[in-house]
Amino acid sequence: MLGLAVVLGAVLGFASLKFKVEGNPLVDKVDAILPQIQCGQCGYPGCKPYAEAIGAGNAPINLCAPGGEATMLRLADLLGVEPQPLAAEHAADKPKQVAFIDEQTCIGCTLCFQACPVDAIVGAAKQMHTIIESECTGCELCLPPCPVDCITMERVDEGISGWKWKYPVYPISETVRDAKVNT
Fold this sequence. Notes:
Helices cover 34% and strands 9% of the residues. Helix 2 (25-33) packs across helix 3. The chain has six helices and four strands; from the N terminus they run H-H-H-H-E-H-E-E-E-H. It is α+β, with helices and mostly antiparallel strands. A hairpin with a 5-residue loop joins strand 2 (121-123) and strand 3. It has helices at 2-18, 25-33, 47-55, 68-79, 111-115, 172-182, and strands at 97-101, 121-123, 129-131, 151-155. Among the domains are: 23-91, 3-methyladenine DNA Glycosylase II, Chain A, domain 3 (Orthogonal Bundle); 97-155, Alpha-Beta Plaits, CATH 3.30.70.20.
């Protein structure tokens, strides 16, 4: 048995090296720029499928609502295309928000479970549900499927406890040009 396991392991190891499928490095770079909240607001099921569509040239760079203009500018810089204004349905600059479920109204239908891309909703069928605030991305995808409209979005104040540094956005072309000048 041990000899068979070793032989099969060696065959599988060889096959994984021989038939390895290389990914598109551009897709990986685009995916690294996207915010990775998997909200689906761009029309794709997550950030990776959206990055693949951008890499293949099948999607515009201006669909990421959570990333906003900063993400769009970084994508334009990476791909060497002209920046585009955010798509009309994604252009509204919304404050940070999280979902809230009115526990008195919730009927436990679990439709919001299926819609939440980050599994921020907990509860059981026919029981009250609640939101894990730290996991909720504020994507609003749980609102439409709720049959009793018990889910509302509440603004999150960015006080000292919830404040985060805004990362600087450096154009990639300038960074590359400066690196070439210095070498």
